[in-house]
Amino acid sequence: xxxxxxxxxxxxxxxxxxxxxxxxxxxxxxxxxxxxxxxxxxxxxxxxxxxxxxxxxxxxxxxxxxxxxxxxxxxxxxxxxxxxxxxxxxxxxxxxxxxxxxxxxxxxxxxxxxxxxxxxxxxxxxxxxxxxxxxxxxxxxxxxxxxxxxxxxxxxxxxxxxxxxxxxxxxxxxxxxxxxxxxxxxxxxxxxxxxxxxxxxxxxxxxxxxxxxxxxxxxxxxxxxxxxxxxxxxxxxxxxxxxxxxxxxxxxxxxxxxxxxxxxxxxxxxxxxxxxxxxxxxxxxxxxxxxxxxxxxxxxxxxxxxxxxxxxxxxxxxxxxxxxxxxxxxxxxxxxxxxxxxxxxxxxxxxxxxxxxxxxxxxxxxxxxxxxxxxxxxxxxxxxxxxxxxxxxxxxxxxxxxxxxxxxxxxxxxxxxxxxxxxxxxxxxxxxxxxxxxxxxxxxxxxxxxxxxxxxxxxxxxxxxxxxxxxxxxxxxxxxxxxxxxxxxxxxxxxxxxxxxxxxxxxxxxxxxxxxxxxx
Length: 520
Ligand code: KIV
Ligand code: ZN
Fold this sequence. Notes:
Elements: E1 3-4, E2 6-9, H1 25-38, E3 42-44, H2 52-65, E4 70-76, H3 79-89, E5 95-102, H4 105-112, H5 116-133, E6 137-142, H6 149-162, E7 166-171, H7 178-195, E8 200-205, H8 212-221, E9 226-229, H9 243-252, H10 254-257, E10 259-260, H11 268-279, H12 300-308, H13 335-345, H14 353-370, H15 375-388, E11 397-404, E12 411-418, E13 421-428, H16 432-444, E14 449-458, E15 465-474, E16 477-485, H17 488-509
Parallel strand pairs: 1-10, 2-3, 2-9, 3-4, 4-5, 5-6, 6-7, 7-8, 8-9
Antiparallel strand pairs: 11-12, 12-13, 14-15, 15-16
């Protein structure tokens, strides 16, 4: 019989730690709602002890999607972190406390400077404390793949006896190779099943050697019942195991793995695109499953074969991962019904009539400028509206702008609004965008540095929407901002302002109770 593999998505915790990928609370909730549609089993929503903003985001996610999806969040093996996790996830139907503590010599010596026995005891005490709060506790043996095996097992045995219900084995630095990692999981699984066969064995891999998917699959073959993954493989350094790769490997090669998951694969592409949009971090075009070219066939021999029978060159269909084969093209005359249909087909809820009217107005404006509106455009219109239209009197809004460019002194004049205040100014620059960004920087009076500016066009046609992604540095942190518009100068101004607003919001939320703010 096919074994069910539990899928924990950690995009909002491990993935979100990538510099510049920080999302605001509203964006995190929007993404968590999409993870729910994707039918992941567990969402790791954040690291609540790291900041007040993270705590609030985890709490909102527990409240808004924790009715059907299990919610977890990360704690170090200390009481205050465990309390923060408990208080942020307790409203979910099925909350899970996740505790992490290193087991490798290098972690024990360099991070804790304690004896191995003392570190093990810290873990046991943490689990015992967590169990007084909730029945489900996961324990992660950080840097397991570089740990001495017998000490790793001794730790697992002790924390299971203390009450841990899931054991997660991380390849924290992406050091493992599939045969070794698979063998380690086989041995741990054998001992764990003998100790207590109700405890779930899980793996969490990083991609430093490009082996995260291979290592995760090797672990599944050797008995792991749970995988920790992120959408697009997002994560620090080379990232985490990619959810879509593991899921489709298990599905397409079910004959080899004899396993299945609960994931609704037709939501994969949409989830990937939403994340790309929210973080501004693009997926490489040849990325398996979700890259733009993943299902494109350009060679004549392949195209000929495909026309005869798709299976000649396709091991899975684009439709299986959510790439629509039929697309309706909307115009300004399409009307409410057709627009509503398109929005719903993309998986968005349209039950809020007032919000739908605002979206419809935006659609008409877009259709007037762009003539033909594709699924792609509707998707960005809705996500843009739901995640970036935050009305907050502490944030800057673009009121009006004028940019004049030539080869001598490009000039920009901008008017910004913040609450009831208006700020107007002009500046010259090396080019139109430099002039625009210089005047905005002067008006907000903040020391921000532009680190990266990217523009590309969405969908097809000469009226295509321009999407601008920027990354800025502010007070030593990296923030990203993005915007889209048929006018690329306006999109550039909005993206820069969104980045500045994200930095200001984050700075305001950073009453960080602990110095450490990330965990890989
Ligand atoms: O990579 C890692 O070790 C982690 C743990 C917190 C599971 O992210
Ligand atoms: Zn990690």
